[in-house]
Each structure stands twice: as structure tokens, then as C-alpha cells.
Design brief:
Blueprint (H helix, E strand, L loop, with lengths): L1 E8 L3 H12 L4 E4 L13 E2 L1 H7 L5 H7 L1 E3 L1 E6 L2 E7 L13 E3 L2 H13 L10 E8 L2 E7 L5 E11 L6 H6 L5 E3 L3 E10 L7 E4 L6 E5 L5 E8 L16 H7 L3 E11 L2 E4 L4 E2 L2 E3 L5 E2 L7 H20 L9 H26 L3 H19 L2 H12 L12 E4 L2 E2 L8 E2 L2 E2 L10 E5 L4 H9 L4 E4 L3 H5 L7 E4 L5 E5 L4 H10 L8
Parallel strand pairs: 1-2, 1-10, 5-13, 10-19, 21-28, 25-26
Antiparallel strand pairs: 3-7, 4-7, 5-6, 8-9, 9-10, 11-17, 12-15, 12-16, 13-14, 14-15, 17-20, 18-19, 21-22, 23-24, 25-27, 27-28
Keywords: FAD, Flavoprotein, Membrane, Transmembrane, Transmembrane helix
GO molecular function: FAD binding; oxidoreductase activity, acting on paired donors, with incorporation or reduction of molecular oxygen, NAD(P)H as one donor, and incorporation of one atom of oxygen
InterPro entries: FAD-bd, FAD/NAD-bd_sf, RIFMO-like
């Protein structure tokens, strides 16, 4: 009987990242997908800064930046004219090594993840479907339907449902999926074209309640059109063609279409599962939460789920922690998912609202306010922090303790950079580690050496103060680079007590 540590259902970005992270940490995974081949079309485009930061742990960030497209600006159009421009080139300068908007289509993204996963000897099992599963005392027993139609019984310690909005894992767990469905039909078209909106920047039409945007891709004259329709055409989504929706792009954004490579339509929901974990089964990505594409958050949130769960599963399976560590996955990720669904729903509802007042706000007020607001550094920083997901934090949650400087337990470690380097180099290693900015005690140094806990002591520099880091305290960092403890002492007993209380064993490799 085939047995793995973790059986992953679904080979989209969420499932692939989970498989990749676990494989890097020495965990035996099996990943299946019911599709015949990887997708050749994609809706998700943006790879946010926080995802790129975490991808450094897998040596993926540079490949994405090199092969993707950095968007220089967002342009907003009204009545056939560009009326506002928001520069994006260094919108997050000083906050992250990736202070820009990166476009890297999901199909190319998946191909890169699959290629890297194969270096660990793991291949996605295609045309293979989960039929059912049950939990036994020490694991999961699953029934799979193989490509030849035969049924296979397999076992795993845990099962991860990364199988999308129609998740069989979620349905088997009988988790509710409350929320709703947007009335609009969304469409995506991959086109080659020319015109002022094909200058390598992002363009958004504010004219009507139906959303329309042009997202640039790496190839010159190549872009993704994403839009909505809500009139009588939406009632016949299955027969909708590009010709039915293209006139608006041609007229409003002055697009000259040369070739349509592909076109598809879909409906979007805004839902969050009632729970993300039941026993040995977990829900991640679209199986756990779906929302509007506003802000390019969906794929990145699923990847965040995968990284959050991966190090915890690896710790438990390798004997480095007790199973209670896994309780924190749902606590940390469901709170963020609920906030995100609420936020993206409000933004999308504003952009697509109907009526004279809504039209006035979009076409007159928004073009006036956007340049004004973004001329202030604080406004630009708030916008970038929100969209880039660098503000995602786990403050006040069970694995987060303390505060020192401006940094709380549960925060992403702030990036500090100057001419002497940055404080992120050690984060490439996905392990527990301690950062000290300034000086620490001989006791702390000796304790960390004895317990094989990496300790990085940085000579105090103004860049650390500017980033909000405290002098001479310490930050215990989790393997996913979030702060577990922020403490202004140099006492290793604080760390020792933390590990003991959370069932984490004091050995590190």
C-alpha cells in the first residue's frame, strides 16, 4: 500500500509550494491532480513582495524577477483618456528587497514550481483523482482513481486539500463555505495588441460599472485583459466570445487587437470555509477561501497558507514538535482570510458599483484623488504595505509573544538595508533562528551554541533603528521568518520556556 507523509490534493501554486517546501525539509510527499496537464492559461498574475521574500528560501525569487515583468506604473482612464498615473517602480522602497509590482503569469509560475519539485524526485501524478478518504488513529486512508480507471488505496499521515473552490477534501470534511457569488461574469483574454495601453504599464478603465484592466506581460505588445460583464450577456457566459466584449477595450483604452491567443470566462465567489483543519486534514488556497481578484491577492494568499503549514507539518513529522503545533495553522490563516475577503469585496464593490453617484466617484473623484493621495509618502507606503502582504501578521495569536522596538511577536521581521548589507540573508535558511541587533549576553551565546540554534548578532546601525528594530534585545524567528518572540532582554530562558510551552523540541539541524 502506497504511503506518504503528506498526501497533497491539487497541483496549482498552493499545492506545488506545499510539496516543494515539505520536500526541501525532508518530508515524503505525494501530489495528485485530476487534470491531464498543467494549465496553459491563467488568471493570477501578480507575485507580491511578501511571496518573493519567502521564495528566497527556495531560491525562486530571482528566477521570477528575471522572467517576469516589473510594472512601472498604474494608469487610470476616463472617456478614452489616461487621467491619472501612479508610479510603482519603487513604491515600497526601503520596506523590502522587492519594492515593486511583479507580473509573472500563473501558468509560467506553475511550470517553474514543477521543474523545481522534480529536482527532489517528486512528480505530479496527473489524471488522478481523490474519490474519498477517512481518518484512522495514526493517519489517513484515501481512495484514488488512477488514469486507467482503476482504484488505489493509499495511506498518509496527513492530507492537504489544495483542490480549489470545488474541493472534494472540504466537501468530505463537511465544512460550510459561506459567502456569495458576484453577479458579474469575469473574462480573461491573452492578446497581442498595440496602442497607448500597451506600453508595459497597468491600465484600468474607470468609465463604467464593468471592470476592465490591461495587465502587461514580459513580451512586448503582449498583455492580459481582465474584465467583467453584467448585462444580458452574463446570462449566456458559456457562449460568450471575445468579440462580445472587445469593443470596450478598443474604444475606451484605444487598443488595437492583433491576435487573441486565448479567451475564457468564469464566475467569482467570496467565501471562507468554516474551518481550515479537521484532525489530520487541512484546507489551503481556494479550497479554504475565494474572493474577488482585486489587488492580486488570491494566489499569494494560497502560497502563504502553504508556507505557514509546511514548516509546522515538517516539525511534527520529524519529531521536532508535538502535534499541537498544527492547531496554529487555522488560527493564523483563517483570521487573515476573513479580513481579506471582506476587504477585497469592499474594493471590488466600489469599482463596479452602478448609478450616477458611483459613476461620479469613479470618473471624477477617483482620478482627482489618486494623484493627490499617492503624492504623500505615507499614502503610498500604506497602499504598498497592504497589497504586498508585508503587513500580514499573527499578533496576539498563540505562537506570538512580546514586543520590543516597534516589532511585535507575530510580525514579519522588518527589512533593514544600508551600504553594509541587509538583515535578510540568514532568512534563506528555513529554520528557527535568533536575531540580535547590538549586543547580547554570554549566556545567550552559550545557550544557542549548546542547542544548535543559529544566532545572528548584528553590530548596531542606524538602519536598524529606522526599521523599528530594538537595540540589544532579541527576536526569535520562526522558519517562515515571522517573529515568534520579541524581547528586550538577553535571557535565553525566555526562549527555553517558549519552546517548552509550545511543545517544540530543542534540537535544530
Amino acid at each position: 500500500m502506497n504511503r506518504s507523509d503528506v498526501l497533497i490534493i491539487g497541483a496549482g501554486p498552493t499545492g506545488l509550494v506545499l510539496a516543494l517546501w515539505l520536500s526541501k525539509l525532508g518530508i515524503h510527499v505525494r501530489i495528485i491532480d485530476k487534470t491531464l496537464a498543467p494549465g496553459t492559461t491563467s488568471r493570477a498574475l501578480a507575485v507580491q513582495a511578501r511571496t518573493l521574500e519567502l521564495y528566497r528560501q527556495l531560491d525562486l525569487a530571482d528566477a521570477i524577477v528575471q522572467n517576469g515583468h516589473r510594472v512601472a506604473a498604474a494608469n487610470f482612464w476616463v472617456k478614452g483618456e489616461a487621467v491619472a498615473r501612479l508610479p510603482l517602480t519603487r513604491i515600497g522602497e526601503g520596506l523590502t528587497p522587492y519594492a515593486f509590482l511583479e507580473i509573472f503569469p500563473q501558468d509560467e509560475h506553475e511550470a517553474l514550481l514543477i521543474e523545481r519539485l522534480e529536482t527532489f524526485g517528486i512528480r505530479v501524478e496527473r489524471n488522478t483523482e481523490l474519490e474519498s478518504f477517512t481518518e484512522t488513529g495514526d493517519g489517513i486512508t484515501a481512495q484514488l482513481r488512477l488514469p486507467d480507471g482503476q482504484e488505489e488505496t493509499c495511506q498518509a499521515c496527513y492530507i492537504a486539500g489544495c483542490d480549489g473552490a470545488r474541493s472534494i477534501v472540504r466537501k468530505t470534511l463537511d465544512s460550510g463555505f459561506p459567502g456569495g457569488t458576484y453577479q458579474q461574469i469575469f473574462y480573461v483574454a491573452d492578446v497581442q495588441a498595440s496602442g497607448p495601453a500597451f506600453n508595459g504599464e497597468l491600465h484600468v478603465d474607470l468609465d463604467e460599472a464593468d471592470f476592465l484592466a490591461v495587465f502587461p506581460l514580459a513580451s512586448e505588445g503582449h498583455a492580459r485583459l481582465i474584465g467583467t460583464v453584467r448585462d444580458e450577456r452574463a446570462e449566456h457566459a458559456e457562449t460568450l466570445k471575445f468579440e462580445d466584449v472587445s469593443s470596450r477595450a478598443i474604444e475606451h483604452l484605444k487598443v488595437k487587437i492583433e491576435q487573441v491567443n486565448w479567451f475564457s470566462t468564469y464566475r467569482v465567489h467570496h467565501r471562507v470555509a468554516e474551518f481550515f483543519r479537521s484532525g489530520r486534514a487541512f484546507l489551503l488556497g481556494d479550497a479554504a477561501h475565494v474572493h474577488s481578484p482585486a489587488g492580486g491577492q488570491g494566489m499569494n494568499t494560497g502560497i502563504g497558507d502553504a508556507i505557514n503549514l509546511a514548516w509546522k507539518l515538517a516539525a511534527v513529522l520529524s519529531g521536532g514538535a508535538t502535534a499541537k503545533l498544527l492547531d496554529s495553522y487555522e488560527t493564523e490563516r483563517i483570521a487573515f482570510a476573513r479580513r481579506l475577503v471582506s476587504t477585497t469585496d469592499r474594493v471590488f464593490s466600489f469599482v463596479t458599483a452602478e448609478g450616477k453617484v458611483a459613476d461620479l466617484l469613479r470618473t471624477r473623484l477617483a482620478p482627482f484623488l489618486i494623484p493627490k493621495l499617492t503624492s504623500f509618502g505615507a499614502s503610498r507606503e500604506f497602499l504598498f504595505r497592504t497589497i504586498s502582504q508585508i503587513t500580514v501578521n499573527y499578533r496576539g495569536m498563540p505562537l506570538s509573544e512580546g514586543v520590543t522596538g516597534h516589532v511585535h511577536g507575530g510580525d514579519r521581521l522588518p527589512w533593514a538595508h544600508d551600504g553594509e548589507g541587509d538583515n535578510y540573508e540568514s532568512l534563506k535558511n528555513p529554520t528557527w533562528q535568533v536575531h540580535v541587533y547590538g549586543d547580547t549576553s554570554d549566556e545567550m551565546i552559550a545557550w544557542c551554541i549548546e542547542h544548535h540554534l543559529p544566532l545572528h548578532v548584528f553590530d548596531w546601525r542606524p538602519a536598524f533603528d529606522a526599521a523599528g528594530l530594538a537595540r540589544n534585545g532579541f527576536y526569535l524567528l520562526r522558519p517562515d521568518t515571522y517573529v515568534a518572540i520579541a524581547d528586550n532582554s538577553a535571557d535565553p530562558k525566555v526562549i527555553e520556556r517558549y519552546f517548552r510551552d509550545h511543545g517544540i523540541r530543542l534540537f535544530f539541524g
